[in-house]
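Shipment paperwork, digital attachment
Item: protein structure file
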Amino acid sequence: MPNKSPAVERALAVLEAIADQEQAVGPPYLATRLGLPRQTVHRVLRNVGGAGLVVRGPNRERYSIGPRLSALAFRILRSHNQAAPIRSILQELVEDIGETCNIGVLDALDYVYLQRVECQWPLRLHLELGSRTGAHCVSGGKVLLAHLDPSERHRLLRSRKLKRVTARTVTHVGKLEAQLVKIRAAGFALNNQERLAGIVGAAVPVFGPDGQVLAAVGMQSPISRLTLKACRRHVPRLRQAAEQIARVWFA
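Attachment content:
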């Protein structure tokens, strides 16, 4: 990158380089990767840090994505500019499966619902867009945790106590990590009444152009209507929807 690039281009390049990494990064790495003087990188980091776009670690001069940039990313994914085609894909999925479906993303240890389309059954789970739940106890959250860098996931899972919300919730970090390894290998996750007793579900990842997992497409149903085995049979259809969503986001 030329040193005389406009300030906005330099700031975007720094933000993209930080976002590409699984762990916090320091100015030397950014300077080397972007071909910029360290003084320039420090100046950019001060500016974007002051705006809440990146945050500095408490003990070392290493930077990660900040809350304002995360919030902006969620708003973009939920934007009405893309809502219509995404909801159309979800609506078709709901019509085929017959159960409520959603798209969600990971925010630390929370699973955030970006889009949901409800099924027509009177007995169904209602959640508002933007709702959060523990990622460790829903299929969408687990499939996203499974695709994190192992060292980053290990650190994240130990950053706060995992809450037990049903008798089936896995809160032991070692057991959860073993389960996540299997989920990544399988390419999908199941939820066996781990968030709500009597509710089961399944989810698959949404891959970006570079192979990075950015979101999850999931479904849930009362176990009285759909068994866990039946949820597994819907995984190919969920994958098809995930591929369609990726094409809309990254066309």
